[in-house]
Amino acid sequence: MERGSSLRCYLCDTVLRNNDQSRSNHMRNFWKSSDDPTRCDNVQISLNRRIVTVPLITMPVEVDPVVSMARRRPSTWHREREVRSRYAVKQCEVSTVDAQDLTLIQNRWDEKLTELSQLNDSKFWRLFLAMYTLSGTAIDSALNVVKKMFMSEVDPKRFPISRRSLLEKMGTLTPFWPQVLHTTRIDLSRFELPSGTKEICFKFVDPIWGWLVAARRQHPLELHWKPLAQRLGRELYGQGIHCGQLFKHACASVPRGSFPMCVGLHWDGTGAHGLSSSPICVCVGNSNSCKSDTQFCIGYMPHVPDEKKPEWTKLVSATTVKWYIRQQCAAAILKVLEEAACRGIKCRLSNQHNEEVIRLLYPRLTSMNLTNLRRNVSSACRISSGARSAGEEGVAVHLRNAKDMTSRTYLVYL
Ligand SMILES: [Zn+2]
Predict the structure, then answer these.
(1) Distance 232 CA to ligand 1 centre (A)
(2) DSSP secondary structure string, 49-67?
(3) What is the DSSP letter of 229?
(4) pLDDT computed for residue 53 by the predictor
């Protein structure tokens, strides 16, 4: 669809009047595959096939520059959602499939949220959730003042006046997080560290669970499950993930009736209030949104106590240890993803009518951006169904086997 008043179907070039029924019919074609004979441009080709024309080439043929392939077709947010609304994801029959069932954990999570909201007064939650990212002192003094001035009628037990008392109260409930936590031990005995550390523990939230929590925060029309049709010979890829080859391949690699769960995995060092850490996040790759709610932090890169000593960090062996820890952490996370990528995930997610339907999703690692110790080297580049970071040390890459379409983790040395 192009520019305002004279709308044209980008597949078959038919001029469409605004609010026309045919406009809606053409939009449905955008989600059909190129070999679908009912897609509007294919219907036209079969009509035109009766006239045989032989093109006469009189001058050199101009090929579109590569830049134009990446160019975004003029569009608006409303139009994007309108096009996306032309298909709904239906409930999937997954009883016979050996998929990992996350619906039970989703039920427990929903129960936990209800329990939590009942723990305190609704007014308390409204106030607390508006300022929970602030410092502890700021939260405590705000809660105190608000309670004294405006909350005389609220039951004092249902309005904690400090973050500490809130956490204590929350601690009395059955803990949820152990159900979705993974722990791995990284053996460091061969490095003979001066601190005597033999192994470190790396704890992380299940990346699949993290993805699901972030995906449930998104508007259903922002999540893509089918590749957008491309006009043959006039492909444009810059519009979003749903136009790209990566997404197309991911969709082609999953069984019929299921959809790809596009997972991005990345980490980067950061620092605030005198503390530095390297959060590891998963992101929802089925969306074109770049908002922070598409991300979920699954854990933090572990460190050895020796890193506090500046004389040790200058050694070459310190870099080797750091890289080794990163490799092992990446491998542990990819192992979880790999198992899910083979078996599939049964979960509940809203479709465009805001109805939660059971779906079968297959995780596909679509990007993996790692920070690099040598920042002058390009830190991240995307490749099909996996990603890599350039560097001297090997990096773990998740790739699909062409024969049986199963995913494997490989160590790649660049
Ligand atoms: Zn059309």
Answers:
(1) 13
(2) TTS-------SPPPPPPHH
(3) P
(4) 57
Residue type for position 63:
V
CA of 40 to the centre of ligand 1 (A): 5
In angstroms, the CA 225 to CA 248 distance is 10
What is the 48 CA–ligand 1 centroid distance (Å)?
Answer: 15
Q: How far is the CA of 238 from the centre of ligand 1 (A)?
A: 20
Give the model confidence (pLDDT) of 370-412 as tens digits. 654 333 233 333 332 233 333 334 455 555 554 555 555 555 4
| CB-neighbour burial class of residue 381 (10 A; exposed 0-12, middle 13-18, buried 19+) | exposed
Q: Tell how far the Cα of 160 is from the centroid of ligand 1, in angstroms.
A: 60
Tell how far the Cα of 77 is from the centroid of ligand 1, in angstroms.
Answer: 21
Which residues partner with 259 through β-bridges? 361
Beta carbons within 10 angstroms of residue 69's beta carbon: 13
Beta pairing, strands 7-8 & 279-284? unpaired
Cα 30 to ligand 1 centre (Å): 8
> One-letter amino acid identity for 111?
E
Ligand 1 mean position, distance from CA 22 (Å): 9
How many angstroms separate the CA atoms of 202 and 334, rounded? 14
Reading the block at residue 124, the tokens are 């308390």
Q: What's 85's DSSP letter?
A: T
Q: Would you place residue 9 in the very low, low, confident or very high pLDDT band (cuts 50, 70, 90)?
A: confident
Question: pTM, whole model, 2 decimals?
Answer: 0.78
DSSP 287: B
* Percent of the chain's residues with pLDDT above 90: 36
Give how far the C-alpha of residue 409 lies from the chain's centroid of Cα atoms, to the nearest Å: 19
CA–centroid distance, residue 9 to ligand 1 (Å): 5
| Half-sphere CA count of 359, side-chain side, radius 13 A | 20
Cα–chain-centroid distance for residue 288? 10
Joined together, the tokens standing for residue 379 give 């830190």
Token readout for 82 is 């309108």
Ligand 1 centre and the CA of 21: distance in Å?
Answer: 12
Query: Do residues 373 and 322 lie in contact, with contact meaning Cβ atoms separated by under 8 Å?
Result: yes
The 3-state DSSP class for residue 413 equals: coil
Greater model confidence, 396 or 172: 172
Ligand 1 centre to CA of 49 (Å) is: 17
